[in-house]
Model the fold of this input.
Amino acid sequence: MGFTYSTIAIKRFRGTAENQPRKTFTALADGVPSFPHRDLVVHQNGADGALPLLYIDDSVNDRLLVREAIRLTKTPFAFYQADGLQAAMPYFQFPGHDSEPKHPPRPALVLLDYDLGNHTGADVLYWLRLMKKISSIPVVMFSGSAGQPHVAECYATGANYFLSKPKNLEHLKIIVHTLHLSLVSLHQPGPIELLEEYQPDPRKHPTIPT
Done:
């Protein structure tokens, strides 16, 4: 499920002039590199060692927006993307290093949408947690489906956090920056829980009937 502000942000990202026809989202998809090649690397202050972030979402628009938020905030993430489990498999089957171009790197963080067409993010998460070698990778659910059943399902399956997709680009930039700050403490209370989009585990924080 997509962001509500995709048209404006993607237009800015693609550098489309105001007097030019707006490109369709289908046309924008042609500019997304094939998987599993690295799409964008942002180094802060010229330093090497950007952390690999894998964003799994079937919406090309939303993937472009997260990439743009990383660029605008200069957050030191190496951005990788996949539109579903099949496209993401190389990152989990062959964890490698940047020095091994044939092997995509092991993600430091997985940002995972819930609605993925033929399967759900919870299905992908379940598979990840079953695989011993990659089960410890932090996973943050990132979805427009923020109803309590979805949230509870994802936490029960092993999500570290659940975030609703933000309403504007400024909030997305804050989320991207906060995710990087929180990587060292994903299993502890931290800045992610202060985000407006944070959805707590309803099993631990049940809604009180009114």
Observations:
- The helical segments are 6-14, 25-29, 60-73, 85-93, 121-130, 148-157, 169-182.
- The radius of gyration is 17 Å.
- The chain has one domain: 6-194.
